[in-house]
Design a protein that fits this description.
Elements (H helix, E strand, L loop, with lengths): L1 H44 L9 E2 L13 E7 L4 H16 L4 E7 L7 H12 L3 H13 L8 H9 L5 H8 L2 H17 L6 E4 L3 E3 L1 H4 L2 H25 L1
Parallel strand pairs: 2-3
Antiparallel strand pairs: 1-5, 2-4, 4-5
Length: 240
C-alpha cells in the first residue's frame, strides 16, 4: 500500500511539473507572437523606434546649415552598389523634400581604397561640376564596369565628359581637396558610421536601409525626423 501511495504522489508531482512547463512554454510563445505582431503593426503604421530603426549620435555633431533649416546628409562611396541603388530613391526624394531641409553628401572614407573617390568628389565640387558628373560617375562604375580607381583613370574618363583632365588633376591635388577629405574622415568617425549608404539627420540621428527596413522606409524616417527637428527648432524660437 505504501508503495502504491508513493507511486500516486510521484505521478501527481510529475503531472504538475509537466503541466507547469507546458504553461510557461505557451505563455512564452504567446509573448513572442504578440511582440512580433507589435513589430509588424509598427512597420505597417510607419512607427519608428530609436535604437532599432535609427540611432542617436552622442554627442551630436554641429551642422552646416542656416538657422531654421534641417540638415540631411548622406554618407556614400562610388564603389558601393547599394549606394548606387539608393541614388534613384534619393533623386526622387530630393524633388519632394520639405523646403527647410538641406541635403548634402559626404564621400565616406572607411578604408584607404576609398580615398581616390573622395578626392575626385571634392575635386569636381571645387570645379563646379559635381552635380552634373555625380550620376555619370556612378553609372560608369556600376553599369559600364569602368575601373575608376586612381587619379589618372578618373582623369581619362572625365575628359570624355567635358572635364579638362589637367584642371581635374590640379584640383585633385589641391589643399582644398586635402582638407575636405580629412574632414570627411573625421565626420564619419563622429557619426559612428561603419557602412554605407547611411543618412545623418541634423547631426543627431543615424540610420541605414537595413535599420529602417527598406529604402522607402528610410526616406519616411528621414522625413519624420526632419519634421521632428523642425518642430523642435520652432518651439525653441518661440520660447526665446
Amino acid at each position: 500500500m505504501n508503495n502504491l501511495n508513493s507511486f500516486r504522489v510521484s505521478f501527481v508531482l510529475l503531472f504538475a511539473l509537466v503541466a507547469s512547463m507546458l504553461l510557461v512554454t505557451t505563455r512564452a510563445n504567446e509573448a513572442e507572437h504578440d511582440h512580433a505582431q507589435h513589430d509588424q503593426a509598427q512597420e505597417a503604421t510607419g512607427e519608428f523606434q530609436e535604437g532599432k530603426h535609427y540611432h542617436r549620435i552622442s554627442p551630436a555633431v554641429p551642422t552646416d546649415v542656416k538657422a531654421g533649416s534641417v540638415e540631411v546628409l548622406e554618407l556614400f562611396w562610388y564603389g558601393c552598389p547599394h549606394c548606387y541603388q539608393f541614388e534613384k530613391y534619393l533623386t526622387s526624394w530630393m524633388q519632394e523634400k520639405a523646403a527647410n531641409v538641406e541635403f548634402m553628401r559626404i564621400p565616406a572614407v572607411l578604408n584607404r581604397s576609398w580615398v581616390p573617390h573622395a578626392r575626385a568628389y571634392y575635386a569636381l565640387e571645387a570645379m563646379g561640376e559635381i552635380e552634373r558628373i555625380h550620376p555619370i560617375f556612378f553609372a560608369a562604375i556600376h553599369e559600364q564596369g569602368r575601373r575608376l580607381h586612381d587619379m589618372d583613370s578618373m582623369a581619362r574618363f572625365l575628359t570624355q565628359h567635358g572635364i579638362d583632365g589637367k584642371e581635374f588633376k590640379k584640383a585633385y591635388d589641391s589643399l582644398y581637396v586635402e582638407t575636405k577629405t580629412k574632414r570627411a574622415k573625421q565626420l564619419v568617425l563622429q557619426y559612428g558610421s561603419s557602412s554605407v549608404p547611411a543618412v545623418i539627420i541634423n547631426g543627431k540621428y543615424r540610420s541605414t536601409a537595413s535599420d529602417a527596413g527598406s529604402y522607402e522606409r528610410l526616406l519616411q524616417l528621414i522625413n519624420q525626423l526632419a519634421q521632428q527637428e523642425a518642430n523642435l527648432s520652432a518651439s525653441s524660437e518661440t520660447i526665446e
